[in-house]
Write a structure and sequence with these properties.
CATH topology: Growth Hormone, Chain: A
Number of domains: 1
Oligomer: single chain
Length: 414
């Protein structure tokens, strides 16, 4: 739509969507970067730390589809508010936790909270925009949301890194407060029709039916399946990378934990640049598959090259910056494509189908790369992560120009 022709209701919904995502990202960003350093300070080795994060991915794998179905069957707003509540509790528990199993418990609670939030914000926004008369591709909206989310992470991550320089546990309290704040923002801004189309006694049956049918539809729709497998490969690479790069730079730069906050900001700027490029590109659907393939290939190649350049810190930083630029461009393209495959009635459930298998990929990547790093060194785990990421390019190349199917109406309970 031309800017002057955009109805005020669409502008309002879009702004609310951006604000909710910003506050939600801001709440969790305080521990970004310092998370692996915190676990190491509490006595965990890399394999144990990866095992804690793998718990997050495994719990997400088990619960993502049912909680997505909850959002579709009951209400996306309620699902988001429950997500914020659970994540605030998990971050508070992390602050007090000492010992491997308490970390596992906190991570499991956080994973459950994450699954209630997965897809709920995007599904709510897409429904509200379409109800307000929005027509066309939404890549640019998702690009702006991705940029604002990155700014939210950047702001809180930098704050958390400086606070962690004094006490590595304090960022968890700030994160708990941040999620409490995002709960209030979501309650205020996520307006719209509450679905509540089922009675509480029928909710379990409704969720089970939606989850079962979403699995069938996801596996039978080529575009959704290829996007899901590509996302799983990417997560299998990015999860162990996220656990390894702070350790590397803290050990090699030797200037304090605060440097991780600035490096996180540098990488975040890279993702902002990548997303900004997508905003200014003509939204031609036919270009998506080759663009995603080349961007995924570049991400995996740059991550591998960064590992090979481990003896040269500045060169490694430059390569990781380039990788984050490519990643920032990939996210809105893939998110816009998969949302266009879905109808309103099943959107949150089928977005959860994608994130379900992404989390399985993340858990496998963490355990494999953690084992490799423990026995063969940090860089061996790094090379394996980069190799996993390259598989995403192949899955994107198999997408083609898939048309949008009308699949949502068939996702019903039973």
């Amino acid at each position: 739509m031309a800017q002057s022709a955009i109805p005020p209701s669409i502008v309002k919904i879009t702004r609310h969507y951006y604000l909710v995502w910003w506050f939600y990202a801001f709440g969790g960003g305080f521990v970004y970067g310092v998370y692996p350093l915190f676990l190491r300070a509490r006595g965990l080795n890399l394999l144990q730390a990866n095992g804690v994060l793998a718990t997050y991915f495994l719990i997400t794998f088990v619960t993502d589809l049912p909680t997505g179905a909850f959002a579709d069957a009951l209400d996306r707003r309620r699902a988001f508010l429950l997500a914020c509540t659970l994540r605030a509790c998990a971050f508070a528990l992390y602050f007090f936790a000492r010992g491997y199993w308490l970390f596992v418990l906190a991570e499991a609670i956080d994973a459950l909270g994450t699954t209630f939030g997965n897809g709920a914000i995007d599904a709510w926004a897409v429904d509200a925009l379409e109800a307000a008369g929005f027509v066309g591709m939404k890549d640019r909206i998702f690009s702006r949301a991705s940029q604002l989310t990155t700014v939210g992470w950047l702001t809180s991550a930098l704050t958390g890194a400086y606070i962690a320089n004094h006490n590595l546990a304090w960022p968890w309290l700030l994160g708990a407060a941040g999620y409490a704040l995002s709960l209030m923002v979501g309650a205020l801004l996520m307006k719209g029709r509450a679905k509540a189309r089922v009675q509480p006694r029928d909710l379990v049956h409704e969720i089970a039916g939606r989850a079962r049918n979403a699995l069938a539809l996801g596996f039978n729709n080529r575009a959704i399946l290829m996007l899901t497998l590509a996302y799983a490969a990417q997560t299998g690479a990015w999860a162990p990378y996220w656990m390894m790069w702070p350790d590397y730079f803290v050990d090699h730069l030797g200037v304090g934990v605060w440097i991780i906050g600035w490096l996180f900001c540098l990488f975040s700027v890279g993702r902002l640049i990548g997303a900004e490029v997508i905003v200014h590109m003509p939204p031609y659907a036919s270009r998506r598959a080759p663009m995603l393939s080349w961007l995924a290939l570049a991400c995996g190649g740059l991550l591998l090259a960064a590992g090979l350049a481990a003896g040269h810190v500045i060169l490694m930083l430059a390569l990781l910056f380039g990788m984050n630029c490519c990643s920032g461009a990939m996210q809105p393209l893939a998110l816009g494509w998969i949302n266009e495959q879905l109808e309103a009635d099943s959107r949150a459930t089928l977005l959860s189908f994608q994130s379900t298998f992404a989390t399985l990929g993340g858990a496998i990547g963490l355990l494999l790369c953690g084992w490799m790093a423990l026995w063969h060194g940090l860089m061996a785990g790094w090379y394996l992560a980069a190799t996993l990421g390259l598989f995403a390019a192949w899955f994107y190349s198999r997408l083609g120009a898939a048309p949008k199917p009308a699949i949502g109406a068939s996702v019903q309970a039973g």
